[in-house]
Amino acid sequence: xxxxxxxxxxxxxxxxxxxxxxxxxxxxxxxxxxxxxxxxxxxxxxxxxxxxxxxxxxxxxxxxxxxxxxxxxxxxxxxxxxxxxxxxxxxxxxxxxxxxxxxxxxxxxxxx
Length: 112
Hints:
Elements: E1 7-16, E2 20-21, E3 24-25, H1 26-36, E4 42-46, E5 49-50, E6 58-59, E7 70-77, H2 79-89, E8 97-104
Antiparallel strand pairs: 1-7, 1-8, 2-3, 4-7, 5-6
């Protein structure tokens, strides 16, 4: 396990559940690419309601089950590693939003 500097970066990617990359769910492809690139970790979060640039509402309702719920992927690592990852990520994102912000890393460890 590689250490992350205390002053890291948080990469946040907002996409839809139905987005694909070469026939695979986009969120899976992004997480696998992050792992291959040696980034510290990635987490996918599924939203129950949201909308994006097209203002189309995606929601979970009893009578209206959306099949394209919002997905947020969060990746924290050093600024250098995130910056190297971004050019690989860019062609994968069609519709979506990508943000980058400072992250103060307090703990990053695994029990062996």
